[in-house]
Amino acid sequence: MVDGAVNLGTASSPRPLVPTAFAFAARSHVPFRRAIVTSGPAAPARERREDAPTGPVPAARPLPSLQRALPARIFTPFKESRETPTMSAPRITFLEGQAGQGAALARIAARVRSRLASPDCAALRAARRPLFTGIGASYAALAVPVQQLRTAGVVAQRVLASEIEAGTAGFDTDCLIAVSQGGRSCETIAAFRRAAPGITRTALLNVLASPLGALAGLTVDLGGEPDSQASTVGYTGTVVALDLVAGAIAGRERDPWGEIAGQAAAVHRQAAEAVAGLRGRGARCAAADAVAAGASRASAEEGALLLREVARMPAAACATRNYLHGAMESAGNTLHLVLGDGREIALARSLAAAGHLTLLLTTTPAQPSQSLSVIRLPEVPDAVRAVLEAVALQELAAQLGAERGVPAGSCAFAHEDTKQGGPGPAGSQAAAYAPASEAARAPSP
Asked: What's the whole-number mean pLDDT along residues 217-232?
């Protein structure tokens, strides 16, 4: 049930006695009101958000005479669905997240840098076989620290939280690092609960007061930065924090985040111009492929997710070498996002030469063509590059979403079993994608 939603049955099948009972349920009898509204099927037309309490709820019981007159099940005590009091980061729009991203990343870097230097993070710094876990965008971000640590000679791996819900048996690890921006992802919480004894449990969060944070032995947080429904700052800030965690484990003396605010702003400006030139044709593509290697695999996975969430475009991510082994054969009316400086250059050129719309993100000079657009990235360490790639892909998703007529901040599905406590705060509308134009059609390229 959404907070404050009132269920009075349906027009054809009203709930017996509910209207009478509801009249007696004054605002001070909120536990009683909550019991009433759970007594029948949902009736969206009768939902009223104004019935949500706005302040502390005093302990109160329904009138004894009314309690005798109504079915006992109406008076079942209300039970809070969350085990731990939680907070939520302020919600902003996707465009607001893009606009304030550079400054937010600088704040996050300073906060996490200070936290990791504290004495109580000694166990995290001493980890030698870290296992990173998360779900969704959090899982995508984990490609960055894994690449960083392996390059430094530290054994590291990432695994979907859903794959270790039954425990960490079979994984040689001394530190489980779980990532969840809101700290409410059910799969990640389950993985923490079933981690083998003796493993350091570290939670990397944006919202510290959360179920995952309550289970952690150590916490590293982004400071509750405001984030958008389809994550902007939350995702890129997580990548910054994960790089700093990897640097602390590897014993790195300095980090590369001093210029991130200016770097992010510059790439955003360039991306806005590049994407504007392809958005019309791009919005008519039937699907998208995102291809990358190394730490940039995080960007490919996040880019595919953004296109699904923001532009409602089917999209998939693939490792570069694996894409060459058959996956690219389905290229048709497809938007191709290619990220990299090696084999990716030739891949992008071959796709564009065959007439397939391609966007290349690279540090290497590359000449655009009719089907090839290029975003030139600065020469920066891999983790910084992954953040800048995400900034560019956010702009792509935003412009394609607008071109395809997708309502900003909307979602097509709401799940009751992916976040502890149910769906997050209201603020995004659930709306199926119904394009107002021919933008979603799939003509030949």
From this structure: 96
Task: Specify the DSSP class assigned to residue 374.
Answer: E
CA–CA distance, 168 with 157 (Å, rounded to integer): 13
Please work out, in degrees rounded to the nearest 5, the angle formed at the alpha carbon of residue 36 by the alpha carbons of 35 and 37.
Answer: 95
Q: Taking the alpha carbons of 420, 427, 85, 131 in that order, is the dihedral positive or negative?
A: positive
373: its two tokens = 């657009």
Which strands make up the sheet holding 175-179, listed edge to edge? Answer: 157-160, 130-134, 175-179, 200-205, 218-221
- CA-to-CA distance for 207 and 272, rounded, in angstroms? 30
Q: Please enumerate in sequence order all residues whose Cβ is within 8 A of that of 413, keeping only pairs 6 or more positions apart, or say none.
A: 430
Alpha-helical runs (H) found in 325-381: 343-353
Structure token pair of residue 140:
């995508």
Query: What does the chain come to in residues?
Result: 445
Residue 70 binned pLDDT confidence (cut-offs 50, 70, 90): very low
Q: For residue 124, what are the CA distances in angstroms to 147, 205, 239?
A: 18, 15, 17
pLDDT for the residue 423: 65
- pLDDT tens-place string over residues 317-362: 999 999 999 999 998 899 999 999 999 999 999 999 999 999 999 9
CA distances from 87 to 22, 157, 224, 299, 351 (A): 30, 30, 9, 28, 46
Percent of the chain with pLDDT over 90: 69
Q: What is the pLDDT of residues 171-185, one digit of tens each?
A: 999 999 999 999 999
Contacts of 184 (CB under 8 A, 6+ apart): 86, 210, 211, 212, 419, 420, 421, 424
Beta-bridge partners for 177: 132, 202
Burial class (CB within 10 angstroms; exposed 0-12, middle 13-18, buried 19+) of 127 = buried
